[in-house]
Design goal:
Layout (H helix, E strand, L loop, with lengths): L4 H14 L3 E6 L5 H14 L5 H4 L2 E3 L8 H10 L6 E4 H4 L8 E6 L6 H9 L11 E4 L6 H21 L18
Parallel strand pairs: 1-3, 1-4, 2-3, 4-5
Helix pairs in contact: 1-2
Length: about 180
């Protein structure tokens, strides 16, 4: 975890909790980063007095040892807990609906911008009645984040160029552009 990440996460968490918003934290697949962050959140709220996972934070990740995946999803989706959901990109990016989430705090830049969009779309689903806010945290003076961001822009530009001829209105005829050698 990069220096300075935890204070930023706590600041965003504090703002969201004051506005009674549900929080969804997509993060990298580092095995125990969710545990570390949940300890800090509970320390921030309760002074490290409580068992962090049962009282405050739901964790949905490949390495979650404390609860099973369906119970965590159920608890977050049904709103039986106001706890934030800590999710890894691998588990939270596809195939689940998290409409109760209204704040997304992305703690790292991902190589694939489409994975970021998929993670945001977990909360932006039919039935979402709140405005969803997305916060992307960048490490200060990080050449890695800068390099990944530039790579994302190049990939997105290339993807747009490839897809542009294929995107059309239903009534428009299909036009296949000539291939250049």
């Amino acid at each position: 975890m990069r220096r300075g990440s935890i204070p930023q996460i706590l600041k965003q968490f504090n703002q969201a909790s004051k506005q009674l918003e549900r929080v969804f934290f997509p993060n990298a697949g580092w095995p125990y980063v969710s545990d570390i962050i949940s300890h800090y959140i509970v320390g921030y709220l309760f002074g490290f007095k409580n068992d962090f996972l049962d009282f405050c934070v739901l964790c949905l990740c490949m390495f979650a040892r404390h609860r099973n995946e369906s119970a965590v999803r159920e608890e977050f989706t049904n709103g039986t807990s106001s706890a934030p959901l800590l999710v890894t990109a691998g588990c939270g990016g596809t195939g689940i609906n998290l409409q109760p989430g209204s704040v997304i705090i992305q703690m790292e830049v991902w190589w694939n911008m489409n994975h970021e969009r998929q993670a945001y779309a977990r909360c932006l689903r039919q039935g979402q009645d709140k405005m969803v806010k997305v916060y992307k945290l960048f490490a200060e003076n990080s050449n890695i984040d800068i390099m990944i961001s530039k790579c994302q822009v190049r990939k997105d530009k290339l993807n747009s160029q490839v897809m542009k001829p294929l995107v059309r209105k239903d009534d428009d005829p299909l036009i296949i552009p000539a291939l250049h050698s």
